[in-house]
Each structure stands twice: as structure tokens, then as C-alpha cells.
Amino acid sequence: MRNIGIIGAGQAGLQLGFGLLEKGYTVTVYSDRTPEQLFNARLAATTYLFGRAYQYERELGLDFWQGPGEYARGGDLDVCVAPGQRVLRVQGRILQPGKALDLRAKYSRWLAEFERRGGTVGVRDVDVDGLEALAAAHDLVVVTTGRNSFTRLFERDAERSVHTQPQRHLTAMIVTGMKPLHETPDPALKFILTAGHGEYFSMPYFDRIRGPLHCILLEAIPGQGLDRFGGVSTAAEALERMKGVLREFSPWVAERLERASIVDESSWLTGAFTPTVRKPVGRLPSGRTVMGMGDVVMLNDPIAGQGLNSASKQAHAMTQAILEHGDQPFTPEWMEQTFEHFWRTEGQYITAFTNMLLQPPPPHVLNYLGAASTLSPLADTFFDNFGEPQRFWPWIASPEETEARIQRAAAA
What we know:
alpha/beta, FAD/NAD(P)-binding domain, D-Amino Acid Oxidase, Chain A, domain 2, 3 domains, globular
């Protein structure tokens, strides 16, 4: 069977590794950290895995965390025209619920499980020289992490990368003592969009140590009113600033945080990055090639919750493509064709949906949300499509088709 090397022990790399291992392939995952180091690392992201992506890992026997705390079965969206001025509220169901899980718990458990199932784990820092050696030793090397400047091996796709700088300054935290969202019949993802300032998200979450809690993500437009976390150095300071932001911008949810605290000093983050699409073929100085996957080729802002879901879907598609390729050589042409197929069927919609949410909603989308505030089928469609962004197209791009959907729902 083929010998595959995977750089990176995250969602894309490990899921691909398990998928190939299950089919008898020889697979080595190269991680820069041990399972223990992954578990004890600082928070790097907060994410929600929607239905189909969640199902992929369940099919691989990787769902080791089950319980009510991490599930969200609905969405609750507030649209504000100015700080504290809510003009619209949309509540709907997520028909294919997933979960929000502490990735430090997930990846540390998965990496140990990968070795237990017969995979090989290499714990080392891999640089470009190391990639050269691995490319010579494996039939295919897949790079799934942008650490160690690997992204410079993969050319930026200027036609598909519409941004040249970060669109949001991010602040995330895992909190204990946060009051549940009582306004929805089921545990829900809470969204607040404040025009010209940014977005707030909170959700049920499964913490690596304490189990069912909540996590918060604030997306601030640089230089605007939500952008208040520069220079924060402690968890307590970060939480106090978050409370202050919510009292001013969203007082109706601020009381949920009044008695909350961040779990520990490793369970919060601030940062920013530029959304970028890159070409999938990485060219090494020797002329050998490696293939990019996950955030290496599709780095999206977390505003639409697509990062982890995109990685899962890419890993599933890559597994199928490798299996179908049999014993043929993994040429640059195959790498390009494999990525292009994913881009045409899913990737372009994931990126377009994310970029759409980074901009002020056009009038026809606001009309849809207004109708969804009273017509539950429209609300359900909106929230459930976060897991399948391709379902928004082509109608979401057409004012006429969007209006037709509204009229059909109103007449039903």
C-alpha cells in the first residue's frame, strides 16, 4: 500500500491520517508537539463542527466526547444598526447539529489514538530541509499546517484571495459561570452583528478539563468600537473588557457574563490574520512537490465558523481522491485537479459565504433576515446552511431569487 506523510496534527491532518489508516495505508503524522503538549497548550481557536463534518469523524470512530454540554441545536441572531440598538432578531433550528469541543483535548486524544491504531507519529519540528527528506521518503506528503513558514511554499491565489490584510481583530475565551441562553427552546449558537463594528458569538462548549461550559468569540472591525483588546495581558483583564463591551453594545446579553470567569490563563486569545487562498502545490528547492490542505490552502476568517468544517471536508475529499488514485504517481497535475474539484464543489462557497459575512449585508439579505424573524422555515434554512454553505447558492447572490424564496415561504 502507499506510504503517506502528513505534516500537522490538527483536524485536516489527523482526519486524513485515520481515513487512510483504516484502508490499510502506511501513514506517518508529523507533529511538533506530543499529546501531552497539545493538551496543555494555550487556546488557539474556538470552533463549532456542524453536522456533516461531525458525522465524518463519527464514522471514523473518533467521537470520544458525548454529552449535552457541547451541542447546539439552534441559532439566535441579533442585528443591530448601532451599539445597543437591536432592530432584528432571528431564531431557528440547526437541523443537523454538531458540537463545539476544546481542540486541545481533541487533538491530544486523536494523536495518541492514531498511534494506538497502528499509525506512526513523528514528534519533531519539520523545516524546509526536513520536507525535502520526507518528500523523498513518502509517496505523497500533505502539508496541513502553516507553521515554520510553510505557506511561502504555496503560491497565493490572487484571483481567489480578495483580502490583503486582516478583516477582524479576534478575541476568544472559554468561560465558566456563564448563564444559559434561556430565550431559545434548545441550546443555541448566539450571534450579534453590530453594523460598522463587528460581531459577537457564544456557544455551548466542552472544555478539556471542566466539561460543559461556554465559549465566546468577538470579531472586531479594526479601529472601531469593539476593538478594545490591544495590550490585554491577563484573563481577568480580557474578561472585564468583554463585559464592558457587552454592556455598551449588547446589554441584553451582558448579564449572562456578570458572574462568569475565564477558565484559566491558557484559555483565552487575541489575534488577527489575513484570509487567503493558496495554490495546492508546494514546490521545494529540489523540484520535489508536496500538497497543501486545510488552512494552508484555504484560510478563512472564523466569522462563519468554517475553518474546522472546511478542514474536515477537505480531509474527507482527499481521502477519497487518494484511494481512487490507486498506485498512480501523485503528480502536481493530480494535486491541482484534486484541489480544483473540492474548490468547485465546496471550497468556493465556503470562502464566498465567509467573505459575504465580512461585509455589510446587502438589502436583499437583510430582507431575507427580516422575513426569517417571523417565518421559521427561512430561519431554519439560514442557520442550517452554515454547515452546507453551497446551499445558499445561487439564490443568495440574486435579489430576485431571494425575494422569490421569501414569497414562497410566506405563502406556505
